[in-house]
Predict the structure.
Amino acid sequence: MTARILVVDDIPANVRLLEVRLLAEYFEVLTANNGPDAIETCENGKVDVVLLDVMMPGMDGFEVCKRLKSDPATSHIPIVMVTALDQVSDRVRGLEAGADDFLTKPVNDLQLMTRVKSLVRLKSLTDELRLRASTTRNIGIEELLSRDFANEDVRPRVLLIDERRSSVERIQKMLRNIADLDVATEPNAGFFQAAETPYECVLISTAFADFDALRLCSQLRSLDRTRFLPIMLLADEGEEGRILRGLELGINDYLIRPIDQHELTARLRTQVRRKRYNDQLRASVAQTIEMAVIDGLTGLHNRRYLDSHLQTLFDRAVARRRPLSVMITDLDRFKSINDTHGHDGGDDVLREFARRLRKNVRGIDLACRFGGEEFVVVMPDTDGEVAEKVAERIRAEIAQAPFAIGSDGKMIEVTVSVGVSSLLRGADSVAALMKRADLALYEAKSGGRNRVVAKAA
């Protein structure tokens, strides 16, 4: 696992020590000896994780962290504060500034590498989501990246898996006004509860009498529904080995008992904020994909999707020696509808036509808006005779009932012309199939409109 790590410390010996350790693990290392240089490096270069000293002259680590996390361009970069400060109040201050974790000097090699590798994995996921969402500025990606999810009003739903009643009661008291907390006292029940409920974080105790908590963590990471669910381990003093193994398995964070309420709250908010950020990126990606293949006005697939999918349907029909038919429809005198009733009226007609079209084709049929007032329906396993009957049914459906347009529901008459073509055995192609349907449509239009014409059907 390779990544670019930025080491920030005003003491050269400290920088060199971390640099040597990271280089030995084949990480690429960048360095900075003050806050402004660190911020500039993050803004200008690809940085995967920042190891940030707290006590620096001028701008301390808390301020550097706060500035990086408040900038949408750098807020997704994981920050580990490396400090001699070991008070809970210092950790809480750093977490509230946006830090993802702490390492206490002198830094343990195993803790350093395990934590860095864990955060690099997290950063690679976020980078992939950001890359896929980079074209979605028109649907608000910039606003998304600048949101502060920690301060949103919605309380996170959290699951605690812990069999000790006293421990459960303490956590419940700590999170009473912070989160909606559910409790599972049995590990297997907790696993199914986590899989079936949309939690934003799960807290897992290591103090089970007859069950290995790390096995539960591993099971949650192996299940698709919980693969990205933040996991925080609640461990006892002396369980450093178990914690490190947990980090290797994919847990996101941990707390050592006795648990401080402020630190628990700050770390939970960090995990929830990151999860909501990545969830929004995933939603943005899904919306982008949908926008790429769906016509926004009618809800049908668009021409881009038709161009990519029709060839697949054609090849499948040829390989299986099955029939395939295509119809192209065109709303008659649509320009006059726009001229008379405005584009809003025209849009109403297109939406209603798409609704009626969808109602009269099968689920396996591919209905697309081809462009303007033209629509295409691809009908697998349908020969020309049946396709012509379907086209006639659609034509009659459009002609027999007026269309309501405008806020006043004014009714207007609409008709449609349809051209149909079917797959020819032997030398045929998608282009030839579409050409025959287009010629049939032209014949229907020139022959008086409001009719169906089939070519080689």
